[in-house]
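User: Show me an example of a complex going from sequences to structure tokens.

Assistant: Sure. Here are the input components:
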Amino acid sequence: MSASGTEPPLVPGDRPSAAHCHALRVRLPAGTSADDVAAALSEAVRAWWPQDAPERLPRLWTERTPATAGALRAELYRPVAPGSRLRAVLFTGPGPGAETELVLTAHRADLDMASLRLVADVLLGRVPADRPRPLRPDWPGPRPSPPSRPDGDHAGPAAWAEGDPTAGTDTATLAVPVPATGGAGLDPALLVVATAVVQARYEGVERPVIGVLTVLPGRPESALGPFEGNVLVPVDVGGGRPAELVDRARQAITAPQAWCDPSTYAELTSGGHRVRAGVLAVPGGAGRQGPDGLPTVLPCLAGTFDLTLVPDRGAGGEDVLTVHHRLAEIDAGSAARFARHVVTAYTRLAAPAPEDRPAVALDIDLLDGAEREQLVRAGGPATTPEWPPYRLDEAFARQAARRPDAVALVCEGDSITYRELDSRAERMAVGLLAQGVTPGERVGLCLGRSPDLVVAMLAVLKADAVYVPMDPAHPADRLAYTAEDAGLRLVVTDVDALPATSARAVRPDEVAAAGADGTLAPPGRGPGEAAYVIYTSGSTGRPKGVVVPHRNVVALIDATREDFGLGPDDTWTLFHSSAFDFSVWEIWGPLLTGGSLVVVPYWVSRSPGEFRDLLVERRVSVLSQTPSAFAQLIEADRGHGRPLSLRLVVFGGEPLDTRVLRTWFDRYPESACRLVNMFGITETTVHVTAQTVTRREVLAGSRSVGPALPGWYLYVLDERGRPVPFGAPGEIHVGGAGVALEYLNRPELTAERFLPDPFRGGRMYRSGDRGRLWPDGRLEHLGRLDNQVKIRGFRIELDEIRNVLLDDPAVTAAAVLVAGEGAQDAAAARIDAYVVLDGDDTAAVRGRAATLLPEYMLPATVTALPALPLTANGKLDTRRLPAPAAVRRPPAPAAAVQDPPTARRHSRGPSAELSAQLAEVWEAVLGVPVGPDDNFFSLGGNSLYAVRVAAAMSARRLPALPMRELYLHPTVRRLARALAPAAEA
Amino acid sequence: MTAPRTGLLAGKAALITGAARGIGRTCATAFAREGADVLLLDAAGPVAGVPYRSGSASQLDHTAALCRDLGATVLVRQADIRDPGALRDAAREAHQRFGRIDVLVNNAGIAAPSGRAVHQYDEDEWEVMLDINLTGTWRGIRAVADYMTRQRGGSIVNVASTAGLVGYRHFAGYVASKHGVVGLTKAAALDLAPLGIRVNALCPGSVRDAPEAEGLMLSEIARALEIPVAEHEATFVRDQPTNELVEPDSIAEAAVWLASDRSRQMTGSVLTVDGGFTSR
């Protein structure tokens, strides 16, 4: 129990530690003799610690200089030497009668604050020197660690703040007034809960664990020793009533059950959330400032935690919350915001009238009117542009009238001028009317990337109808679904066998022929009416149609025209499927700014090398790409002599990993080609934000998607629709010029997702995406709130895939996962399905799904299980799922054992030789065994892997692999046969 | 305000030997200006066997006053670096007062007895030169190394000389001792690097006797060589490519940098501030 001089210091590394030291300042009566104080101290410490070597005992340091603010502050914030029990410094001014100040500092592991007061009382003669007794506490549990994380780790970078990685262990301090208490002192238990409420909001956690420094109950009054220790208080912000939370925190502070030790720490933070914030709650140990504004009681010289919150009393007796923040994790602005919000939460929790207190923690609104206003303003550009209310076809017509002979479209050697495009579209529009199309009617366009597609889009609009793009590459059932859901009577298509629906299929040339002689009346519908409907993946298991009006697209192009310098000199590409809304941007971008549009044939779009050649040949200047596709283009471009003519690349469709751009910038500096990362949603008309990416962003690993486009507004809101503080995660809502009209024929879903904009009027779209907004208006995109994922730019609802699998009569349970998503290799991302099955024919399951799902949504693997593993909570336990199995047909007797006769006959020919080589290449690229009849795509192959197969084949001097051939002949045997003549040649 | 003072050395505590005047004083005030607290040590009185006037207690107090004016907390210790106990006590005192020791500037040293050929020194003259300049430097390292080890950090700046890199006629003892300091620096750097302690040598060229720093090195050397100070000064100015003598402030700036975290990856190095003299 008694102190021992050999007691090892508790601080790891024996470093002087400001965080674990506290200080007390006492003014002595004028004229106090320094020698008397020195003698009193010397006598007292010899009595208290007789076993200490004399030169190690505390002595009085006398500074015969005035106790200036600078000198006092330096002394108060100076940690004691490790191993020193106490430091006592007396400032006596040079002249007689000068003010005399005594500063006592100690390490918390040696003397607590009550001990320091006792020492001061002895030196002031208020207490006899033989009254205090040095004692080590008899702790009720495991020996407490020093008041910090036992493992010395900090919680790591705070996502809601900007840390300075070079700051080391430096801390800074700020103070926020707490007017609500009326100077009665801050209640530590309330402060703990208020801190937890704010941390929960900032970090999206349900049950933050707050470190609380408190004192051993029943501390002997006259003891000298370390009686302060840390407890960890989990605060169930998501669950408990605030009053209960405060009671529990008070219990933990005043009657601590478990002191913080490594095992408690590990147990309480096992969810992965480390302790971010600590509250100093030593009863009677709050900080205090003297009339000079300098501390008289300084509970800690620096913070132990990333954020250490200390109740304090200001010079005028007002309550103040002092916050120490580690600069490595949290910048001053963010710390001040956090502190202000803690004070707000505290004020609400401490409301005098019980009925004014929040019923649940979520009731607490952290923001005041001014801050809410600031948040709303930050989400949109300062000035709101006024868009001329044009229809798309009108806006196009203005360009056509201005430069009728400029090239509008280029496709494989053919080019079409604005005038020709306009007249062909007009002819087809008349043809559509002749087919009975009425204003506002939806017309399907099931056309590949071709001039016909663009002509038909324009024609539908000129006919005052609404186009519904349908990708001919999609499975028949999906196309049929789209036709039914959109209520199509007419589908313009060049696909021979459109699936059986009630819609009538007509060829583009038929429509044009029907409209050869007629004339067109001006459309009656305004720019606020629907222009197109694009179907997106839906969590209900069925895609949903997003209805977008004319004016949104016109606003989108107007919002970017000036900043991106879009104009007649630009050449764009039509690269993406018309069913993917990135193509809306690609098509209308040039057509509304006088540029020309190069139509990229499907097979070229699948082959980065051929695509690169096309970009060079056509001198394309504006390119829109998903980051995955662009990564392939960078690879294809490497080592080519003739550089691209690009001046602007727009990324969209999926999060951008900027790392791949370093090599790009080496070849194409920012000054020559601007890269812009745009975040967007179909429901808000392609894009929402724009972030120019330079080497600076690449090196900083920036995740910003930039501020909102002019006319678009961002709000990051909590589940109650309130703005969340800057840097805190919330759901992204988008208001302004891009908000779509509705989900077609889904009034309930529309009402759920398209909400009134309470901040600026109009409507806003609730995106289901998580994000955080920064004070400068930049948005950081954090992914989805639900099961939606993006693979190679495609928006995919896993629930939709799961529903398709469950529709299979043989499937009784299903789970769908994305694998390899975090990998650097975009090609590795794939969808794995697990099914509980009658029988074992997973190939049949996948085959059926393939009739309903587009290729990018089709699971690469389907693994049959006797049952899906579940967690205790009944959720899918993904950790217990086995590694996925490649899709296999049930073994057919002959095929499994030996090649069928036909194959054997070929075994002496060149195609068998090629087969063997191809199988090796596929196995190397896909990492799975490959049989002669295994489908490339069933084995997990995708467009990225296809590119690698082509590269590997060319490295082995095998025949060139046009992408088209691989898609047409997706097995080793068939591909070898298709390529064999080339090999023989 | 957890860092009440600012500067390159804010929050650091430094022990500076030979602080009464000259380079020691200039270093002390530069450190104080950069936010360090300092313990100033000097023999501050006649040193047996040294034929010229050493720094005085009054000069040491004046250095302390200059540092206090700059906001530093200052401890003053009058001690001869040939007394191992005195150095150890000084280090302990600095540690107790400041809570830490981050920097040692091993500056104390003598330039004479000198002024004769190598074989003409007697035992005592040779002994006092090496005892103060070389062994004294080692004693300083020994006194602070334990504190710095426990802190896992520290910077030791050994003030050597261009005489630690090249020879000078009639200065064999001084040259030998300063070459010894350079060698000691490198060996100590290797021993202490794993403990987080850096050791570097600073080699001033011919430093002007600045009146405000009360340094006397140049004139004492002239006296040892039995030539007029003005002539000696002119010779050195001629020999330095920059055509001027080195100012004490330039040495102090280099010492601040070596003491600061800015030079955190530098140890065992020799930093020359000699107007290009040794580049010839």
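The lines above are the inputs; the final block is the predicted structure for all two components together. Residues 2-134 of chain A form a domain with the Chloramphenicol Acetyltransferase fold (CATH 3.30.559.10).
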